[in-house]
Amino acid sequence: MELTYKKQNVYASADEKERKRIFDYCEGYKKFLDCGKTERECVAETVAMVEKAGYKPYTLGAKIDKGAKLYYNNRGKSLFLLRAGTADIAKTGVRILVAHVDSPRLDLKQVPLYEKSNMAYLKTHYYGGIKKYQWLTIPLALHGVVVLSSGKTVAVNIGEDETDPVFYITDLLPHLSQDLNKKTIGEGFEAENLNILVGGMPVAGEDKNAVKLGVLKLLNEKYGMIEEDFLSAEIQAVPAVKARDVGLDRSLLAAYGHDDSVCAYPEITATLETETDKTVLTILADKEEIGSEGNTGMQCVIIDDLLNEIAKSYGVNPAVLREKSMCLSADVTAAYDPDFASAFEENNVGLVGYGVTMNKFTGARGKSGSNDASAEYVGYLRGVFNKAGVIWQTGELGRVDLGGGGTVAKYIAKNNIDTVDMGVPVLSMHAPYELVSKADVYSAHKAFSAFIK
Ligand code: MN
Ligand code: MN
């Protein structure tokens, strides 16, 4: 009997075949990342994936037949996949996997376009927790939708194609940064200075706002839009970078939006590939980065409505269904970074390459705002993962007094559903280009699969 506990490195435990499976799996993930940089794009991409697998759209109120594979598309921004199982739902409940598909970024303001010093800019309002300086001097792409005055919605996507132009936020040269360097990072980089450069060529024959006019002309040609159409638009600036292997051994993967596509993708693949007789509800949520608010965030009653529809269709008491249901709140956690060692407590943090990481609790200071899963539920899951041969670990975000964070876990748990956080550890979380180990991504897929089996 092993008396001591030691974390296991996924790569060290993997043979050649398993390493190939890890790498092959992440090729699919890279495609998902490059096509889905916003919640709308992730939802559209997932709908295409599941339709290929035979999933059909669900309308509220319709009966759910045993064996059905359905999806409920909530306003194009959040998605619910439902596999209606044949097992006795009054005993097994619903297995719920939930990840979010919104990521920190710069949203355009409603009246964004202006001209200054013969250059045209777009004003932004950042979305989610960012370190502002990280968004300067990197190539940016614009993604989103514009609802024109005609009522027609057009999709915007500029900066991803190799031949597209990109956009840019400037920084001050080091030669003149003596004053700036004395300021704190918070003081030195202000949100109102996160203005995106979008043009520098005046329209001939115009002397006022000639550059802005040039930009408007181009937008009109491409999208049929006028300046007022920005009022009814949702346009996001995201890094114009593709997912790339990192390291000579290619063991790591850098991308924009790992938080939380790195959990959403394994959730989807586990749902599509796992044979199970259980009823599975797989959720891609929006607005997690801003508190899960609104009708596409996890605080919306839609999950309740769907659980009620399932209970009604199966003829079981909805209260019993909830009580028997279980959830993995699949969200990223911080990975231990030796260059910032003092921010972490080494025994209780996700280590890169040591598998998908369970956070029994999140929150700040004295676990404030945390779901804190029960020992019984963690014990049950521990058995499930160990039996399935999943290499997994536990962790906390970081040192207790340094800060904290939350996830959607508490919004699921309050429905009387056992819930725990489990996700991939990420280096440089919330940076424009985040880093994970491919081994941990595949470990998440295996864990989620074992959970719904
Ligand atoms: Mn997250
Ligand atoms: Mn986040």
- The radius of gyration over CA amounts to 23 Å
Beta content:
15-25%
Low-confidence stretches: none
Number of contiguous helices: 13
- Tell me about the largest β-sheet: 9 strands, mixed
The small-molecule ligands in this entry are: manganese (II) ion
Strand order of the largest sheet: 1-2-3-13-4-14-20-16-18
Distance between the first and last residues' Cα? 28 Å
Summarize model confidence as the mean pLDDT. Answer: 97
Helix content: 25-40%
Total beta strands: 22
Helix-and-strand structural type: alpha/beta
Shape: globular
Protein described:
The protein is of the alpha/beta class. It has helices at residues 10-13, 16-35, 39-52, 89-92, 178-182, 185-188, 210-223, 258-273, 302-314, 318-324, 375-387, 409-413, 438-452, and strands at 56-57, 69-74, 78-83, 94-100, 105-116, 119-127, 140-147, 153-158, 195-199, 233-239, 244-246, 252-255, 279-285, 326-329, 333-334, 356-359, 363-364, 392-394, 404-405, 418-423, 425-426, 434-437. A 9-stranded mixed β-sheet has the order 1-2-3-13-4-14-20-16-18, with helices on both faces. A 6-stranded antiparallel β-sheet has the order 8-7-10-5-6-9. A hairpin with a 2-residue loop joins strand 5 and strand 6 (119-127). The longest helix is centred in the first third of the chain and has 20 residues, at 16-35. The structure holds manganese (II) ion (MN) (2 copies). One manganese (II) ion binds at residues 259, 289, 430. One manganese (II) ion is lined by residues 259, 289, 430.
